[in-house]
Design goal:
The protein has helices at about 1-10, 10-15, 40, 80-85; strands at about 25-30, 45-50, 55-60, 60-65, 70-75, 90-94. The chain is α+β, with helices and mostly antiparallel strands. A hairpin with a 4-residue loop joins β2 (about 45-50) and β3. The structure holds iron/sulfur cluster (SF4).
Length: about 90
């Protein structure tokens, strides 16, 4: 039954109809960043380099209780590319 309903009205329809948006979270272990610049090069809308500190900055990110920086976004956009390219895997997209 659910499959039939989903075929008639797929999930994006319900999400738009009920104005549901799924948020994603971008998390950076800032201390673990080695400053390679890959994230900022691939995803400059969200990432920039702090050359004085030699680390990438997640634009608009707020520090959480673990000392990581995190940002909630409606769309992941290029952040998955940034995470995949990070050589020390300090970027998480959840
Ligand atoms: S890709 Fe990773 S290591 Fe490189 S600057 Fe970005 S957060 Fe830092």
């Amino acid at each position: 039954m659910v499959q039939i309903i989903n075929n008639v009205y797929p999930l994006p329809f319900y999400m738009k109809f009920f104005k549901i948006s799924i948020m994603a979270k971008i998390i950076q272990d800032h201390e673990g960043c080695i400053g390679c610049g890959s994230c900022a090069m691939l995803c400059p809308k969200f990432w920039e380099m702090d050359y004085d500190k030699g680390k990438a900055v997640l634009k608009g990110g707020k520090k959480n209780e673990k000392g990581e920086y995190e940002l909630e976004v409606k769309k992941i956009e290029c952040n998955q590319d940034a995470a995949d390219s990070c050589p020390v895997q300090v970027i998480k997209v959840i």
